[in-house]
Amino acid sequence: MDILVINCGSSSLKYQLINANTEEVLASGICDRIGISGGSFSYKAKNKDKITQEVELKDHEVAIGIVLNTLIDKDIGILSSLSEIKAIGHRIVHGGEHFTKSALINEEVIRHIEECADLAPLHNPAHLLGIKACKHLMPQTPMVAVFDTAFHQTMPPRAFIYGLPYEYYEKYKIRRYGFHGTSHSYVSKRTAEFLGIRLENSKIITCHLGNGSSICAIENGKSVDTSMGLTPLEGLVMGTRSGDLDPAIIDYIAQKENKSTQEVLNILNKKSGVLGISGLSSDFRDLLAADEKGDLKARFAREVFAYRVAKYIGSYTAALSGVDAIVFCAGVGENAKFIRGKIVSHLQFLGITLDEEANLQTVGKEGIISTKDSKVKVCVIPTNEELMIARDTLEIVSKL
């Protein structure tokens, strides 16, 4: 069964066409700068050269139309007809408390996604545009919503409730929701397979480290705590996000700099993190290059990031009352050898010993980077959110 996986951002659209039976990627690409001048479209089909074009993308429907037309193009396409696409899986960032698992998209599901828009104002409205566009262009094709927040709905109240008047939770559902759930779910399952342990009897800490980063404590295959909160701003120091800080800082900066609360929140979301600390870049590759040239702020930013990750791992080891495996994934987790080494250096109290050679050799691929006598396994498992979306979509539509 061929499934089209769609991930809509406010001005971008990533896609993959996946054979859900063999789990093979047939085609993939991105539409960028939707609704903005200077748009572009990329497409890479199996056994074909990558194509990149400059194209004006007025809206998400135009972008999806280009994707669909390319997939069936007689010269570069990989399908003979759109009828070969049996389902569409949509990544949805926020599902609130309503969705504990993926769902077949209908009017009720769309309404709930709309209701969560104020919790994810940059994401949910964009996802809805993608759903609307697909619905218009392929009205008979079933669609499934796969929620970033759903995996974390197994967290106990002690983990998701904030120390606020309880009425704010009752009235506005202010609580920890967590994100990257599709990634944490996939990686934890794959880790259990890779290590030959039973997921139903395991304690795993997954570290999704990229420009946006989060950590998840997973017990017996279920999320019991995670670092992101009501929004993706909480938790680790990230590429441009501040992560955890004293809430009073917001008002303090607003008064000192004569800024509104919204302006300060924009700084915390887009101008902070390792970008803010280094004054250089949010890209860890840039920070590595600058560090090697003696840039002390770049080195400091990387050390702060590694320290925060290690601190969360320590706290989640306590939350789980032990840990079987610590797993790195996503762009930084899969590739940044120095960062992984710095993080593990803080965790020797757990009886962890890093295999230096394995750490150097394991880049963008699965591997164990701890020594054989290490009391806790430390792994690198590349994430695959699109495959997880395809799997969930297949499970749901196969029952129709």
Q: What are its keywords?
A:
400 residues, 8-stranded mixed sheet, 6-stranded mixed sheet, 15 helices, 19% strand, nucleotide-binding, ATP-binding, EC 2.7.2.1
In terms of topology, how is this protein built?
Elements: E1 2-8, E2 12-19, E3 24-32, E4 40-45, E5 51-54, H1 60-71, E6 85-92, E7 103-104, H2 107-115, H3 124-137, E8 143-147, H4 157-160, H5 166-172, H6 181-195, E9 203-208, E10 214-219, E11 222-226, H7 248-257, H8 261-270, H9 273-278, H10 284-292, H11 296-320, E12 325-329, H12 330-335, H13 337-345, H14 356-361, E13 367-368, E14 377-380, H15 385-397
Parallel strand pairs: 1-6, 6-8, 9-12, 12-14
Antiparallel strand pairs: 1-2, 2-3, 3-4, 4-5, 7-8, 9-10, 10-11, 13-14
In the CATH hierarchy, what is the architecture of the largest domain at level 2?
Answer: 2-Layer Sandwich
Widest sheet: strand order?
5-4-3-2-1-6-8-7
**CATH class type of the largest domain:** Alpha Beta
Mean pLDDT: 95
- Shape assignment: globular
Count of separate DSSP helical elements: 15
What proportion of the residues is helical, as a percent range? 25-40%
Per CATH, the superfamily of the largest domain is: ATPase, nucleotide binding domain
Radius of gyration: 21 Å
Poorly predicted sequence stretches spanning 5 or more consecutive residues: none
The helix-strand sequence is: EEEEEHEEHHEHHHEEEHHHHHEHHHEEH
Please describe the biggest sheet, giving its number of strands, its sense, and whether it closes into a barrel.
8 strands, mixed
CATH fold topology of the largest domain: Nucleotidyltransferase, domain 5
Structural class by SSE content: alpha/beta
Q: Determine the N-to-C terminus distance.
A: 14 Å
In total, the number of strands is: 14
Number of individual domains: 2
- Beta-strand content bin: 15-25%
Pathway: Metabolic intermediate biosynthesis; acetyl-CoA biosynthesis; acetyl-CoA from acetate: step 1/2
Family: Belongs to the acetokinase family.
Subunit structure: Homodimer.
Binding site for Mg(2+): 7, 385
